[in-house]
């Protein structure tokens, strides 16, 4: 028998995501799962340190989608946000009928984007339901179920089919009889490794 201490560390991936730090007689192991940490964030994790130095971790298990050479450089979260902000600001400022659809493939993990777009542009993000955000009160002010907004993150089982018909997944095609001009942004790291070449 061996006593093992297990510490959960924030993974920075989606709300509630964690990395596991296992400590026992045979050493220390870090299991990451999917994670997203910017430079310097690990240095601020007190539980990774013993006194003034980093704990002596013998093994790190990177169980992550992006453990592949083609993803050696992924832009920082801030770089991505600034690019999206510039695009969304320039599009939505044309007319109130210029709308952005954030084609989010997962239910969680985009909260940082929604909050920052809403704060910077003063536009709430349309989502299908608020239920999944009930335990994240910091985002509730930034999302809405009101379809009459210029930023949408609503979802439909066949999102791409909807978009091709110049229709948002929530069914919106126009406001006050005026057709919407829709652009789609797919906030995903998946395509980045393919296109960096």
From TrEMBL:
Q: Which GO terms describe its cellular component?
A: nucleus
Keywords (A to Z) from UniProt? DNA damage, DNA recombination, DNA repair, Endonuclease, Exonuclease, Hydrolase, Nuclease, Nucleus
Residue ranges of every copy of the DNA repair metallo-beta-lactamase domain listed in the record:
138-192
Tell me where in or outside the cell this protein is found.
Nucleus
Biological process terms from the Gene Ontology for this record are: DNA recombination; double-strand break repair via nonhomologous end joining; interstrand cross-link repair; telomere maintenance
Highest taxon, organism lineage = Eukaryota
**Coarse class of the protein's main subcellular location:** nucleus
Task: Show the GO MF annotations.
Answer: 5'-3' DNA exonuclease activity; damaged DNA binding; endonuclease activity
Sequence similarity: Belongs to the DNA repair metallo-beta-lactamase (DRMBL) family.
* Protein name per UniProt: Protein artemis
Query: What organism, scientifically named, is this protein from?
Result: Pandion haliaetus
Name the gene that codes for it. Dclre1c
């Amino acid at each position: 028998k061996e006593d093992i201490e297990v510490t959960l560390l924030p993974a920075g991936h989606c709300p509630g995501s964690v990395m596991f730090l296992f400590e026992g007689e045979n050493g220390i192991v870090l299991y990451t799962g999917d994670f997203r940490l910017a430079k310097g964030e690990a240095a601020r994790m007190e539980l990774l340190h013993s006194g003034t130095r980093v704990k002596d971790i013998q093994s790190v298990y990177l169980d992550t989608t992006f453990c592949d050479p083609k993803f050696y450089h992924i832009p920082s979260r801030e770089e991505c946000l600034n690019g999206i902000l510039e695009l969304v600001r320039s599009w939505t400022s044309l007319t109130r009928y210029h709308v952005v659809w954030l084609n989010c493939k997962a239910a969680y993990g985009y909260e940082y984007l929604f909050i920052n777009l809403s704060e910077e542009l003063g536009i709430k993000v349309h989502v299908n339901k608020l239920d999944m955000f009930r335990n994240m009160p910091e985002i509730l002010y930034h999302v809405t179920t009101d379809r009459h907004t210029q930023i949408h993150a609503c979802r439909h089982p066949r999102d791409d089919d909807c978009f091709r018909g110049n229709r948002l997944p929530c069914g919106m095609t126009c406001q006050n009889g005026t057709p919407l001009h829709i652009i789609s942004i797919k906030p995903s790291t998946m395509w980045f490794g393919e296109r960096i070449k």
